[in-house]
Design a protein that fits this description.
Layout lengths: L1 E2 L4 E2 L15 H24 L1 E4 L2 E5 L3 H17 L14 H8 L11 E9 L13 E2 L9 E6 L2 E7 L18 E8 L6 H15 L7
Parallel strand pairs: 5-9
Antiparallel strand pairs: 1-2, 3-4, 4-9, 5-8, 6-7, 7-8
Length: 215
């Protein structure tokens, strides 16, 4: 609730994770441009994407660098935050160059260690567009690269933070410097993160029902 001497009403809380101790309003607004752009891309996907093969998709007219900077902004803010929820996010030696790229001091192309690929969740049982998660380190261990992955409105977004390149077979899916999103379609039930997502859904339903379970 918001309570003043004159009235009381419902408050409008910040949605999602937010740390007001790391950036001034001006700098936060600059990064907000990337956040808003990513949301626009997500909103366009359902009506504008094309399925190239049974397991590949493409969405044209996307500023790949701007979308990649959105991902970098999430990681950088998590890296400099002291909030417990971000304790597993650290850019280490890349923290300063990430800051310079985000605020225009250096081009994204100068940060070769940082590259982004996207995949699209599909499911016959769930609306995957409603799945979101904070970045998780190394969600794709098969890559054998230092990376972070997050779930965003039906996308699985993976960012490499490593001097080693992505495997050659993924080169055409890197969005940096591109004008489209191209990636693989994944059945979410077959991914490593599904068990964690399912446990979160069960916990949330238990909270909503006051801890009661059906027999």
């Amino acid at each position: 609730m918001t309570i003043t001497l004159e009235s009381a009403g419902y408050a409008k809380p910040q949605l999602g994770q937010y740390d007001n101790q790391i950036l001034c309003a001006s700098c936060d607004n600059k990064l907000g441009v990337f956040d808003n752009y990513a949301l626009q891309v997500c909103a366009r996907f359902k009506g504008e994407h094309k399925i190239l093969t049974s397991d590949r998709f493409e969405l044209k007219d996307v500023d790949g660098d701007k979308f990649a900077k959105f991902v970098l902004a999430i990681l950088w803010r998590g890296s400099i935050s002291a909030r417990p929820d971000y304790s597993n996010i650290s850019l280490g030696p890349y923290e300063d160059i990430a800051r310079d790229v985000l605020f225009g001091a250096k081009p994204l192309s100068s940060f070769a260690e940082f590259q982004v690929i996207v995949q699209r969740y599909t499911s016959n049982h769930f609306d995957t567009e409603g799945f979101y998660s904070l970045p998780v380190r190394g969600r794709m261990p098969e890559l054998k690269l230092n990376s972070y992955s997050l779930s965003l409105a039906g996308f699985r977004v993976t960012a490499k933070l490593d001097a080693k390149p992505f495997p050659s077979q993924l080169k055409s899916f890197i969005i940096n410097g591109q004008n489209l999103l191209r990636g693989f379609v994944l059945e979410i039930e077959q991914t490593p993160e599904f068990e964690r997502i399912a446990s979160m859904m069960v916990a949330d339903r238990s909270r909503q029902s006051g801890g009661r379970t059906r027999k």
